[in-house]
Fold this protein.
Amino acid sequence: MRQNILYFITFAFVFYSPIRVDAEVITYPAPSQMPASKQYKITITQSNKTEESYVYVSDAQFPEKNRSKNTAYTIFSFSGKIKITVTQLNGTFKRCDILPSSYNIKTNVDKNTISFELDKPRNIAVEFDKDQTYPLLIFANPLEKSIPSPDDENVLYYGPGYHDKVDTVFMKPNQTLYVAGGAVLSAHVIGNNASNAKIVGRGIISGRRFGHTHGKLIYFPGNQSTDLYFEGFTMVDAPGYYITTSGKRTHANNVKGLGWWFNTDGFSFGEDGLTEDCFLKCNDDAIKLYRSGNKVYRTTIWQMENGAPFQISWNMNSDNSGFVVKDCDIIRVDHKWDNPNEAVFCAIHGGSGHMSHYLFEDIRVENADWKLVSLQIAKNRWAKADTLGKISKIIFRNITVTTSNRQPMKRLSVLNGADSISKVSDVLFDNVSINGVYLKNPDQGRIEVNPVTASNVKFIVTKKDKAEPKVNNVLKSWENPIRNGLGSYGQKDFHIYYENNKYYLTATEYTNTSWPKRGIVLYSSSDMVNWQEEKYLMRRSTFPDSAWYKDVWSAPELHKIENKYYLTFNCRNDALRPYKQLGFGIAMADRISGPYTILNPEKPLFDGSNASLLVDGSDVFVFFDKDGLFYAAPLNIAKASLLSEPKEIISKGILNEKFRFSDAPFVFKNVNSYFMLLSQFFGGYLVEIKYMKSSSPMGKWEFVTDTPLYSFKEAEANDELDMPYPHKNAFAPPTQVIFSNQVFAGKNGKLFMAYHSSEKYAEPHLCIEPMVITDGKIILTAAKKKIQTMSR
Amino acid sequence: MKQIFFLIFILSIMSVNAEVVTYASTHNMVAGNKFLHPSNEYKVELWQDGKMHQAFVYSMDALHYTNNCKTTAWVNFSFSGNVTVKVFNFTKHRQSAKLLPRNPGIHLMEDTNTVSFCISKAGQYSIEFQSGKRIEHPLLIFANELEKNVPDPEDSSVIYFGPGLHEIGSRYIVPPGKKVYLHGSAYVKGQFFSENSHNITICGRGILSGEDYPARTADHMIHLRNGVNILIEGITIIHGPRFMIVASGSGHHINNVKMMGWWFSTDGVSTGEDALIENCFFKVNDDAIKLYQNNTTARRCVIWQMENGAPLQLGWNGTNDYSNCHVYDIEVIRVEHEWDNENESVICAIHGGKGHKTNFLFEDIRIDNSNWRIFHLITKPNRWGQWDAESGSISNMVFRNIEMYGEQKIPSLIMGHDKKHPVFKLRFENIIINGKKTFGERNNFIVDAETTWDIEFK
């Protein structure tokens, strides 16, 4: 009874007190060591009272790779209703968006300021003109509930100011580390077996002064580090992981983090961890769903260029299950690299554990253009279990994905175990939509399901598509090289095929030396500038180890001949015949996307390089180079057999003094003439692209002109690598440069030439130029120009 | 009594012979000059008979992004007798110091930030404070013999570059019969050229720099076309845009030349027939020594092979037959290879011409700080060679006493392009990899059965 009265009195006091405790704004001072944004100013208004909230700025620490140059952020606490005003100090803007979009926050724009209202705590990103170069984050916290006393001996109290006396704060069981608003603790925090420890406050824990040490910013190792509680603080510039704990029942509430390095993974908690109302902007896996019972609610993630928002496993060797991720927003996924850790929902399981029972529900994914799901089991750099484990019982329910430009996602989703035992199984897509269209089956969802290593993949759709009308852009001009959606580690030997208003592309693929080549990928595009993965035509991992075509996969081509599709390729087995000449193979399918059957699985048709087909009515010829000479032969394509032995078509004997070592013949027919493009490399790193003409595919071939179509000098070679590599010199510059060229007919029969950009010191990429044939001569109107314009 | 005589004998030698000569730097050697500036990483004192000689420590910055070193520093002096080299290390790298080439006879004395060691023999050394296969801030010690026959500046047969900076342009023609002398304090920017000139000497202790020419924008640093009776001795060549030394003709002697470059295409030395390459130092980013001509002998060289090129390159081309090359006593102190390109191995041939390469002897070669393949001996059509469909081979070669301290990450490769271009009669004797003799096991050697024969391991 007495308690109830007390309670009532307290309640009455709070409710009727003249200072309304439930409407309050608390801003915090900033230590002088923390730089202020020169770009943004923020004020908060409540009940006619306006105050400024300090805008911090964190400069990119890994500017070679980071998309943003810096990130600004502000921290305050409030209750009731507030108006936030942001002033853009650096010029004007046309639009402003607040993310997550699901918060539905509307802004008022007035010249160079915007304002909006909040009536509950939120962690949000403010974007001007959809630009991510200078992001602004607002951490609008709830009021603190209980502030510990600085005199409490169980409290490590950091008041406002900059604290860098120690590199590491060590915590004991039951201790509270309090980082007050306005405090910046520049240190790691380690609590070995520190059960019941708490880290709370509105301050900042910064790892900036440590650089990229890979050290964890907050680290609670030991099984006894149980029942940890993290609340309210902000972590910036971590040197490695933000928070790693080993014991059970870690609870993170409203913790924010932003960092820059590869290795700034977000949270990796022990069993039964609970993450709620958190915000992570990080450049490696945001949330590790490694240990049983982890749950994630109402959390917002900005995934930078590397890592997965939700990572199921790299190397788990124990069985784990019972994961829930619910009501979360992924506001951006900046992926653009062909690495296996680049997907929103991801596993690169190389451990022996069985990872199962994952529920992903009510998740909004926006501005994610790359890959949605990648669940793979394979040995990887960090895990080499003898017996690989499994992944099973994954539910994706009510997942809404929107890409930034409403184009399809660039990469196929993948479900691919290691073999028929180490499988990915029981995966349910329950009302998963991309750009308003619900995924109804693997093909329509653009999901590669390996028939051997993945099973029981189901789709449920009970909602109606909300597809937006398709915009048919007419391509007028474009910029070379074209990279959008194509292989990020570079490609060569492009071959483009146009059919039913769609462009299809195959190429020699390249990869980071840490990952094996995948095989042959088919890309598609409606405009030949914006590409996406369409299908894996050949997947290396499905071939027997002894297959002659196990490796390399260079210069693939796709042709339609008498209602069948033929895929040609140049391969070798690197284990059995290392460094030997490539062999030529042919595969056939009824549909362009396959499945393709290899017609000569026993041995190659011949040894040689850069083999290319000419389809001339019902006749098919193959051209290839070997030892610097060119050969040709008529082909029975359906039987994958040569109709006669390959014949030398250019050699010293034929060309006399005009002969020199040549590569990559490509032949096409125009009216009644045959044209052949070729590449010649000169010591001193000069490459010349020339062409010859003949009235018959088998010859006699003659140069039309001595002037090259175009040439590449070494001085023109781009020497900036785009991609991150496992070590500095992982990218191998070729000692001898070959330019393969292709001529293809696109929309309205217009001719184009495709080749790759200079490859000497940087990744090669697709270039396309319009081409015309006038008076029997090939004319490139803007050879090698960066900007290309469609001819009328 | 005997001992006393011995002592007197030693003392008398010292008093007569012992000498240290250092060289002043030129006025352009200032901080901020990325091509060459005073080192702020190292200081070197030379001690002899209780007397200290300050050696100027040069340092240059890497020029290409693939270069693993960020700087390279060196000192250059001449001496006789014994000299104690005392190195002050101001870098943050304080791991215990190591000296390359490995030499158990030289004892390093370490103090907090100095290391001292005594040398009695001229040579080139790398003193290292970082460990690992790649280091970023090396210091090289170029300890020359005292100069003999220093020419008179007034001698009309001598082109004399005295102390100071000289800019001679990219085609300074050396007339026949002339001796070009680079004083130890001379810094010459430019390149030497001659054609059909005999009896040319280029010598001294000075520096020749190609810093004014970006990669492949000018000629070789010294290019003597069709020259007979050539001596190049004692100088240091840096920043070559192409090769350091190219000489065609015959009768070439390259002695104690120190060469350091950064580009793909800064090959080291390519000589004509009947050539002797000895006591040289290479830190180059393309092939160090070209074995392209008859009767080439290369011995007692120290090679730091950067990310590209082969220390001992038998060639991409070769229209004529070549034979009788002898390579011995070579210290390959570092190999920074990590690409599976054709030119990445210590002893390398990518023979793409119609000639027959035969009768080569390689012996006493030590390979340190490498994890790449030792041998890559293949015939293969390539874009530098004049491929002949019928002819071209590699044969009759002996590789003896070759020791690699470490494992090959990728196996050595012995392979012909086809049966008409075979690789045959190679004898590998006493090849030691990581302390273990190898007999051509598959993890160490790929020997292609179709295109090779008589490949013997002993």
About this structure: The interface with chain A takes residues 65-66, 68, 216, 264, 307-308, 336, 338-343, 378, 381-385, 387, 389, 413, 415, 417, 446, 448 of chain B (CB under 8 Å). Confidence is low (pLDDT under 50) at residues 11-15 of chain B. Residues 371 and 407 of chain B are 5 Å apart (CA to CA). Chain B has two domains: 14-145, 158-457.
